[in-house]
Design a protein that fits this description.
Main location: secreted
GO cellular component, one term: extracellular region
Strand order of the largest sheet: 1-2
Protein name: Peroxidase
Largest sheet: 2 strands, antiparallel
Catalytic activity: 2 a phenolic donor + H2O2 = 2 a phenolic radical donor + 2 H2O
Distance between the termini: 39 Å
Shape: globular
Cofactor: Ca(2+); heme b
Length: about 375
C-alpha cells in the first residue's frame, strides 16, 4: 500500500512539474485567440483614443513596459499600489514618479473586461499598449507574445535594477545582460529615446559642475560643447527638478531614427546615450542608423521588444492583476512544498488551489 501511495504521489508530482514547465513556455502570439478573439483590436482602438489627443503619452506608456519588465520580469507589478507606507510599491519609487498614462491602462482594461471578463492579464495589456502607442506615432508594428501572469509583489527598492540615465557601457551591459539582453538590444532599445521628454535632473550633472571644479566650463567632455548652451537655456540651474526637455528635439512625438543622429553628434542628453559611442558594436549600430533604412531599425526594435517581453515572466494561464487594472483572479493548481513521510521515504508534494473569483483558461 505504501509503495502504491508513493508511486501515485511521485507520478502526480512529475505531472505537476511537467504542467508547470509547459505553462512557463506558453507565451505565444495569439494566446487569447479563443478566449478573447478581439483583444488586440480593442486595445488598439482604446489606446488610439488617448494618443490621438495626447501623443506625448506614448513615451511614458512605452517606458512603463520597460520599467515593468526590468523588475521581476514582465508581470504587471508596476501597476500595483502601495498598501503600506513603510513598504512602497514600484510605482512610488523615484525612477517611476515621472511615469504617466495609468488612466490609459485603466481604460484599456475596462474595455477588455467588458468584452472578455476575467481573461486577460494586465501584464499582457502593458505589452500590447506599448506596441500600439509606438505604432500610432508612426513607429513599427510587431507581433506581441501574450500569456503572462500578473505579479503579486511590488517593491520600490527593486527599481535599483533599472538602468539609470547615468550608466556607462559597462554598467549597461551588466544590467541588460542580467536579464538576457545583449549589446545590440541595448543600442536598439535606446532608440526609444527618440520620443518623449526628460527632467533636467536626469542630466544636469553633465552641463553643470561635471567633475566638481565649480567651474562654469566644467561640463561632460562626452557632450558636444556647442550643445551645452541650448540645454542650459532650458535647465537654468543644476537644482532644477521640474523643467522638462525634449530628448529628440523636433521629432519627440514621432517614432523615428533621428535619435541616432543626435547620439553620433554627441548630443544625446543622457550619459547612457553617450555610452553607446564607447563600445565598438553599439557605435557601429549608431553609425548604420545615420543613413541606413529605417525599416531595419523598425525590425530590430520589434525583435528586441519581443525579447524583452520574455523577461522572467511567469507565462501561462492568467493570474493576479495589478490593483489599478481591476483584473479578476484566476484559479490555479500548483505544487507547494510540504513534507510527507511515506514508508521511510520523504516525498515533497502537495496541491494549493487558489480559490479566487474565476477559473479561466487563457487559450
Amino acid at each position: 500500500m505504501a509503495s502504491n501511495t508513493l508511486f501515485t504521489l511521485s507520478t502526480t508530482l512529475s505531472l505537476l512539474l511537467v504542467l508547470s514547465t509547459a505553462d512557463a513556455q506558453d507565451l505565444k502570439v495569439g494566446f487569447y485567440a479563443k478566449s478573447c478573439p478581439n483583444l488586440e483590436a480593442i486595445v488598439f482602438k482604446t489606446t488610439a483614443r488617448f494618443i490621438g489627443v495626447a501623443p506625448t503619452l506614448a513615451a511614458p506608456l512605452l517606458r512603463m513596459h520597460f520599467h515593468d519588465c526590468f523588475i521581476r520580469g514582465c508581470e504587471g507589478s508596476i501597476l500595483l499600489n502601495t498598501t503600506n507606507k513603510n513598504a512602497p510599491a514600484e510605482k512610488d519609487a523615484p525612477p517611476n514618479l515621472s511615469l504617466r498614462g495609468y488612466h490609459v491602462i485603466d481604460a484599456v482594461k475596462a474595455a477588455v473586461e467588458k468584452a472578455c471578463p476575467g481573461v486577460v492579464s494586465c501584464a499582457d495589456l502593458l505589452a500590447l499598449v506599448a506596441r500600439d502607442v509606438v505604432t500610432q506615432i508612426k513607429g513599427p508594428h510587431w507581433q506581441v507574445e501574450t500569456g503572462r501572469r500578473d505579479g503579486k509583489v511590488s517593491i520600490a527598492l527593486e527599481t535599483r535594477n533599472l538602468p539609470p540615465p547615468s550608466a556607462n557601457i559597462t554598467l549597461l551591459k551588466s544590467m541588460f545582460g542580467a536579464v538576457g539582453l545583449n549589446a545590440k538590444d541595448i543600442v536598439v532599445l535606446s532608440g526609444a529615446h527618440t520620443i518623449g521628454n526628460s527632467h533636467c535632473s536626469s542630466f544636469s550633472n553633465r552641463i553643470y559642475n561635471y567633475s566638481g571644479r565649480a567651474d562654469f566650463t566644467d561640463t561632460d567632455p562626452k557632450l558636444d560643447s556647442e550643445y551645452v548652451p541650448r540645454l542650459r537655456s532650458k535647465c537654468r540651474s543644476p537644482n532644477d527638478l521640474t523643467t522638462i526637455v525634449e530628448m529628440d528635439p523636433g521629432s519627440f512625438r514621432t517614432f523615428d531614427s533621428d535619435y541616432y543622429k543626435l547620439v553620433s553628434k554627441r548630443r544625446g542628453i543622457f550619459e547612457s546615450d553617450a555610452a553607446l559611442l564607447s563600445d565598438p558594436e553599439t557605435k557601429a549600430y549608431v553609425a548604420r542608423r545615420i543613413n541606413g533604412p529605417i525599416e531595419e531599425f523598425f525590425r530590430d526594435f520589434g525583435e528586441s521588444m519581443v525579447k524583452m517581453g520574455r523577461m522572467e515572466s511567469s507565462q501561462g494561464r492568467m493570474g493576479r492583476s495589478g490593483s489599478n487594472a481591476g483584473l479578476s483572479i484566476a484559479r490555479f493548481v500548483f505544487p507547494a512544498c510540504i513534507a510527507l513521510h511515506v514508508s521511510l521515504v520523504l516525498v515533497v508534494c502537495s496541491y494549493v488551489v487558489c480559490s479566487y473569483v474565476s477559473c479561466v483558461d487563457g487559450i
